[in-house]
Design a protein that fits this description.
The chain is built from 43 helices and 15 strands. The protein is α/β, with parallel strands linked by helices and 947 residues long. Strand 2 and strand 3 form a beta hairpin. Helix 34 runs antiparallel to helix 35 and helix 37 packs parallel to helix 39. The radius of gyration is 35 Å and the shape is elongated.
Length: 947
């Protein structure tokens, strides 16, 4: 594009307004369609109004890297004059000065330049492929779509395969990137075989991990945070699934724009369709000269690609008609033209034209309207494929089994053999890249991909030769080995691990889809499922893990020789149910069977996995006595392990059990022992899906808080948040916020922090579709609202969210929220309803041995009794009971809170000395936490009593 003034000024002349920076020409406020070269000429001439610009300079500026003569310039000047209505009879704008050049002669007023905004660093577009070095024949279209995206929130570029839809969409994405602050996301559905994975494919590009069947709310939460452009590419095979998702995203995310490419429209509400037609080709005329041929985009593209592949190139007068013929025969399909240009270096233009003639019949070419344009592209690919040496054609066929990008090592593993060595395969790939049949994926590490149309074509060739089963098997075997190594890689930090292995999710899915077809290999699919478990867990894709494991187990049969892999699959199924659904009734029998198999096979790792899962299942179901017994079994099983992390896991499991059972002192000893050993942790524990270091600290923070070490607990929770964010595991970060940050902020009386953490947790769960923690976050946020004084809103919302949680409210994390519900009833003056809630909660605690929160529940009950005429006489006994339990548990925080309630009662009864003694006893053991709300209240009461 020619250089011009970079100020965003508007040039007005006659009824026209020219926006040079935006590359837009308007007539009486309506945008005009101007060809890219013609617009370049106008911008250059208008920028030098009144000056005669030499024709050679114009050609050099407009066609910087293509050799053309003045005929092309005359053609585009004529096109420009036609758009302007410059016929020479009335208004004149562009004047031809014979022998010299052209001059812009219309008088115009140039608006005052707009003040350039301060320079802002714009983040690079997310996942957007690199832009083309030069877009040919589509400048006007790119400008129109870029402009129309301001007016229309959902646009679909519709056209046949290979016509350039993706290139146009990518160019638009880069051109509009700054307008969206770099939030441009490119989602390629080409590799997707199963439309049920549409949502997880979108989530992956957005950087979200999902663990539920409907992550759409997660997308909305993310996309509502600011302007964004989603580019959905190759949508034709997933339209039924994708259309309602797009409608909802556009409807509910007001700052979102969606640009899709497809071979057919979505037929959705609000969709604006832009049909992309073939590049204009030179007409069928014998006397075409070079300038006339190069005035058409199809020929420009052909010559440009020759220059890219072969070096500097100048079209001769003898070759110009041949190029015109090639472009017409290829129907202006961009990909077909590029493929033809790639062969010129070997065969010349005349040879290329003759080969083209031999592959396309006149009858086929004449049925253009009746035959889908994909057949035109398929024929072009067929022609190009036949020109490949055997090693290259074989490599291209074999690589068609990959879904999405692939690494050179994977390509060599799958495509080598049967006459092709590894070095020969890699050399063939290099050659195929040069011929545009394989593309670099644009990722940081070297990866390749086949265009969707090329892959479809090559897969068809593979099928014709009866080779699909052979190479699909190799593909599945490769990824089975690949993820067996990945599962053993416990030393790589999670972000780096996901960068290495996470991008192969589409290939795993494709391999499994093939393996479980009638022509596949179910045994191989079963093995791949078992090795891929680590990937699903680390991506928090528990729902997908669950369904894949169920499918593998259904195909396994009952042979005792399969017990080891059955054990592995059952373990993964049990864990996916436990972590994905919480109180899943099916989890326990599955994990018990896993344990039985581990015992019979004497498999230490899976014995520990099963015991861990069973213990967590007992936590989830409120059986804390049974959980402690299982923690003991785990510790005994780990005692003889040579793996130090097994012993650490045993202490952590027991610490959690003791914490919930109300023994904070013993829990502290266990958790501190784990903390003291974390420095030896060089690998991620094999049997634990969360980060042991991070998960140790959030439970340690809880225990420290209850013991009265408020400052240490708050500092630990704050550091834990930063570690959790950096770790990148979605489920782990939920626990970081929900197990420590939120409750500690709430108990401290810092409701600003509580609201902040609760909001972050809710957004995180919606972004990653983690249902159970999302239920808790909404309930917690309602409790915060009520505690901040808005009981009228918070109380009904808290009740509603607890009801919505259903069985999930029996998870340990919900118990404090039941206590807060009773406290809200107290604030609302509904004492009897509060007492009913407390009695239910106390019954739950006693039945389940869920004792850690018992002192606070009894204290709240005492406060309710004080307001009840029937029960006020029993309030003091409840407060003293709560204090006694708190002391036995080593829970100084509960002791302080209960002592404050008791002292207020005693003050009201005139027993000031007793009240002071109670408070001094409770506060005397506090060496820190002077700023927390409960300590401030206690100090105020002490000052009042001493005053």
């Amino acid at each position: 594009m020619p250089a011009h003034n970079t100020q965003d000024s508007v040039i007005s002349f006659g009824p026209f307004r020219l926006f040079p920076k935006s590359r837009l020409l308007e007539k009486e406020g309506e945008p005009l369609h101007v060809g890219g070269r013609a617009l370049d000429i106008l911008i250059l001439l208008a920028g030098r109004a009144g000056e005669v610009v030499d024709k050679r300079e114009l050609v050099k500026r407009i066609w910087a890297d293509v050799n053309v003569d003045e005929g092309s310039l005359r053609f585009h000047v004529a096109a420009l004059r036609k758009v302007l209505g410059d016929t020479g009879k009335s208004a004149r704008y562009v004047l031809n000065v014979p022998g010299r050049g052209y001059c812009f002669v219309a008088p115009f007023a140039q608006a005052a330049p707009q003040v350039a905004p301060a320079s802002v660093e714009i983040a690079p577009p997310r996942s957007l492929p690199a832009p083309l070095a030069k877009m040919i024949g589509r400048e006007e279209i790119v400008e129109k779509i870029s402009h129309d995206l301001t007016l229309h929130r959902f646009m679909t570029v519709v056209g046949p395969g290979g016509i350039g839809k993706t290139a146009v969409a990518v160019t638009v994405g880069h051109r509009r990137s700054a307008d969206f602050g770099g939030r441009v996301f490119f989602v390629d559905f080409g590799p997707l075989r199963d439309a049920s994975h549409v949502t997880t494919t979108i989530a992956s590009v957005l950087g979200l991990t999902v663990s539920s069947e409907d992550p759409t709310p997660a997308f909305l939460t993310f996309l509502k945070t600011g302007p964004a452009l989603l580019i959905f590419d190759s949508c034709e095979h997933v339209l039924d699934t994708l259309a309602p998702i797009v409608e909802r995203l556009v409807r509910e995310a007001p700052q979102l724009r969606v640009l899709a490419t497809s071979r057919e429209s979505f037929r959705s509400e609000g969709e604006r369709i832009f049909r992309l037609f073939p590049l204009d080709c030179p007409p069928e005329r014998e006397d075409l000269d070079v300038a006339e041929v190069l005035a058409y985009p199809a020929a420009q593209l052909f010559v440009e690609r020759i220059a890219q592949s072969s070096g500097p190139f100048q079209l001769s007068a003898e070759e110009a008609p041949l190029v015109a013929n090639i472009c017409r025969r290829l129907d202006g399909i961009a990909l077909a033209i590029e493929l033809a240009a790639g062969r010129v270096n070997a065969y010349g233009i005349a040879g290329t034209a003759s080969l083209l003639d031999s592959r396309f019949s006149l009858q086929w070419r004449g049925r253009r309207t009746a035959v889908p344009r994909h057949q035109t592209l398929a024929a072009a690919l067929d022609w190009s494929y036949d020109l490949l040496p055997p090693a290259e054609s074989a490599t291209l066929r074999r690589l068609s089994v990959f879904a999405g990008p692939f690494a050179p090592e994977a390509a060599a593993a799958v495509a080598s053999g049967d006459g092709l060595g590894t070095s020969e395969t890699l050399a063939a790939i290099d050659s195929l890249v040069a011929k545009s049949l394989i593309s670099p994926s644009g990722s940081r590490t070297l990866r390749y991909r086949l265009l969707d149309t090329t892959r479809t074509y090559a897969l068809g060739k593979l099928r014709e030769l009866g080779e699909v089963g052979q190479f699909a098997r190799r593909h599945a075997e490769h990824f089975c080995d690949f993820f067996e190594r990945a599962g053993a890689d416990n030393s790589t930090p999670l972000p780096e691990w996901l960068s290495t292995y996470g991008g192969e999710l589409d290939n795993v899915r494709a391999a499994l889809d093939w393996a479980f077809t009638p022509d596949g290999d179910a045994r191989l699919g079963i093995a791949l499922t078992a090795t891929a478990v680590t990937l699903w867990v680390r991506l928090s894709l528990f729902a997908e893990c669950r369904e894949r494991c169920k499918a593998a187990l259904a195909a396994l049969g009952d042979d005792r020789d399969d017990d080891r892999i059955r054990m592995q699959l059952l373990s993964a199924l049990g864990w996916s149910l436990m972590y994905g659904e919480g109180r899943a009734r099916e989890a326990r029998p599955i994990l018990e069977t896993t344990l039985e198999l581990a015992e019979s096979l004497d498999d230490k790792d899976f014995r520990l996995r099963a015991l861990w899962g069973l213990c967590i299942d007992q936590f989830n179901n409120g059986q804390f006595g049974k959980a402690r017994a299982l923690a003991d079994r785990f510790a005994n099983a780990a005692a003889n392990s040579s793996d130090q992390t097994d012993l650490m896991l045993g202490d952590r499991l027991m610490a959690v059990a003791l914490h919930y059972l109300g023994d904070q002192n013993e829990a502290r000893q266990r958790i501190d022992r784990v903390n003291a050993s974390l420095h030896v942790l060089v690998e991620k524990p094999k049997i634990f899906p969360l980060d042991l270091r991070i998960s140790t600290q959030y439970f340690r923070a809880r225990i420290l808080w209850l013991q009265g070490f408020a400052d240490q607990a708050q500092a630990l929770a704050a550091n834990n948040i930063e570690e959790g964010r950096a770790n990148g595991h979605a489920l782990t970060f939920c626990s970081v916020l929900g197990q420590a940050a939120c409750p500690i902020a709430f108990w401290s009386g810092d409701f600003d922090a509580a609201e902040r953490h609760g909001t972050e947790l809710l957004e995180h769960t919606e972004r990653h579709a983690i249902r159970l923690w999302g239920l808790w976050a909404r309930t917690f946020n309602a409790a915060v609202m009520a505690r901040r004084g808005d009981v009228a809103t918070g109380l009904p919302l808290l009740r509603e969210e607890l009801n919505r949680a259903g069985d999930a409210r029996f998870l340990p994390r919900f118990l404090p929220l039941l206590g807060e519900l009773a406290a809200c009833f107290l604030e609302a003056g509904q004492v009897d309803r509060g007492l009913d809630v407390i009695e239910d909660a106390l019954a739950r605690c006693n039945d389940r041995q869920e004792l850690w929160y018992l002192p606070e529940l009894i204290r709240i009950k005492g406060e309710l009794m004080l307001r009840s005429a029937r029960h006020s006489g029993d309030a003091e006994a409840r407060f003293r009971e709560a204090i006694d339990i708190a002391v036995r548990q080593g829970a100084r925080f509960w002791q302080l809170r209960c002592a404050t309630s008791l002292s207020r009662l005693l003050i009201g009864a005139g027993q000031r000395a007793d009240a002071l003694a109670v408070l001094k006893d409770a506060t005397g053991s506090f060496a820190e936490g002077s700023d927390i709300s409960d300590m401030r209240m206690a100090r105020e009461l002490i000052a009042q009593l001493r005053g």
